[in-house]
Request: fold
Amino acid sequence: MTAKRASGVTLVTVAPITHSPPQHPENALEIPWITKRRLGLDDARSWVIVNEVNRIVWPGPDLRSISRDEPERFAYGFLPPSFYDQLAQRIAASARDQKLKIVYRTE
Reply:
């Protein structure tokens, strides 16, 4: 998700992804292996954290190009709609339950 502020700064909201198994499974959503493979990610299990999001300035040091050949490429691809919907619902539930941590990254 992106939002442009009156100052002209664009903020991007991203959910963290980790290889570490969650201590509290309700706070994470495992990325299906087939999705990871289609996106060109590694084979290790990964989870999206659903009770924390990072807000970062675009462009900035926290989002880097994923391709040396295509320096303007920052995205691996789209999530399947069913996975995206489940992820969005889980993040929205965290927000609704006042359990969503928003981290503003400024470096």
Q: What stands out?
A: The chain has one domain: 2-105.
